[in-house]
Design a protein that fits this description.
The protein has 354 residues and is α/β, with parallel strands linked by helices. Helix content is 31%, strand content 19%. The structure holds thiamine diphosphate, iron/sulfur cluster and magnesium ion. Thiamine diphosphate (TPP) binds next to helix 3, helix 5 and strand 5.
């Protein structure tokens, strides 16, 4: 059977596709065709993940994609087909992600969840994950509703937000960013699926960070929560997005330029040597001050604004893997002769418990 001609064979003058620093094209970071609704914010987030992983030159086989249940949790099927993937039970991705990350610390864990998956059914697991500073990126694709089960309010719905049916939410929303900062996550930010530039830079910086990254990304559900009266719609976000800082990111493998206004810039060196530059857009905002970060989020809630940007960063705190003092070699590849205690070691342990 004849094979389809490649671009180069069909047109020898066509430019060779761009490759990244590990020699892969962006196509090698793509996934299956999305079955989500056209225009769903979650699709845009998948596209940014593809761009970020490609531009950072991450080896797809080094990534484990974790999710729970929901339209958002289906997204890992739509990017990075060459990576490992696990779709956990609703709200239970943190436990599985913790186990996988500890079993092979050489892999990069990327969790994708929804607002319902994370802080409705999944709150208990989520808060304990945030306390541990497990090295992983946790993305919440936040549309304020349970999209998959036809648009009921989730726990991130704002007071006064209206469903299409006219039902109004009168319970306080859970601010996942304020919660994550208070609990101990070390890189916390919020973005909007419609802001390509900010989201891409945030994802690239997240890849360079070692510790728990929590990115809450407002991601409109065009089918159930994009109407007048919604506070998670494209229109609402375009009118109320209030960036707290402008993000600059220079990966470790690129040259750093020196042209900036030092008074307005906070330069943070990330774990892989990359440089994160945050230019203040809010007077006096310091993203290394936890209490200040939580206060800013509470104030923005009172003022009905949606703060975006990197709210908090701490590059000094040990990760859960550091605290457990684990061996460098992945547990998953250690032979049984090493992992199985000897009879004598077990007897000694039992004796110590008597
Ligand atoms: C144990 C359990 N309870 C309830 C459900 C039904 N259910 C499936 S997805 C979902 C909510 C998903 O909402 P979210 O995480 O916000 O994802 P979205 O679809 O909005 O992206 C619910 C309640 C389920 N699958 N399993
Ligand atoms: S129902 Fe909403 S969240 Fe689910 S795919 Fe459609 S637009 Fe996206
Ligand atoms: Mg949702």
């Amino acid at each position: 059977m004849a094979t389809a001609p490649t671009n180069a064979a069909a047109n020898p003058a066509a430019p060779a596709p761009k490759v990244n620093r590990i020699g892969l094209t962006v196509l090698e970071y793509r996934g299956s065709k999305s079955t989500l609704c056209a225009g769903c914010g979650h699709n845009a987030i998948s596209e940014r993940i593809v761009d970020a992983m490609f531009e950072m030159g991450v080896e797809p086989e080094r990534v484990i994609k974790m999710s729970g249940i929901g339209c958002s949790s289906k997204s890992p099927a739509y990017f990075m087909s060459r990576s490992h993937s696990f779709n956990a039970v609703h709200g239970r991705m943190p436990a599985v992600a913790t186990g996988a990350t500890l079993a092979n610390r050489q892999l990069m864990t990327l969790g994708v969840s929804g607002d319902g998956d994370t802080v409705s059914i999944g709150t208990g697991q989520f808060v304990h994950l945030m306390r541990r500073n497990l090295p992983m990126i946790y993305i919440i694709e936040n549309n304020g509703v349970y999209g998959l089960t036809k648009g009921q309010f989730s726990a991130t719905a704002d007071i006064g937000a209206k469903l299409k049916t006219g039902a109004v939410n009168d319970l306080r929303p859970i601010d996942t960013c304020a919660l994550a900062i208070q609990l101990g996550a070390t890189f916390v930010g919020r973005s909007f699926s419609g802001d390509k530039k900010q989201l891409l830079l945030m994802l690239k910086a997240a890849i360079a960070h070692k510790g728990t990254v929590l990115l809450d990304v407002i991601s409109p559900c065009v089918t159930f929560n994009d109407h007048e009266g919604s506070t998670k719609s494209y229109k609402f976000m375009q009118a109320n997005d209030d960036p707290i800082n402008e993000i600059g990111f220079i990966p470790s493998f690129e040259e750093i330029g020196a042209d900036y206004d030092a008074g307005q810039i906070l330069d943070v060196t990330l774990h892989d040597g990359s440089s994160l530059r945050l230019r203040k857009l809010h007077e006096g905002y310091d993203p290394t001050d936890r209490a200040n970060a939580v206060r800013a989020l509470m104030e923005s809630d009172e003022n009905h604004e949606v703060l975006t940007g990197i709210f908090y960063i701490d590059t000094g705190k040990p990760t859960f893997v550091d605290l457990l003092n684990m061996v460098d070699e992945p547990l998953a590849t250690l032979p049984e002769s090493v992992t199985k205690p000897s009879r004598a070691a077990l007897d000694k342990l039992m004796a110590s418990l008597r």
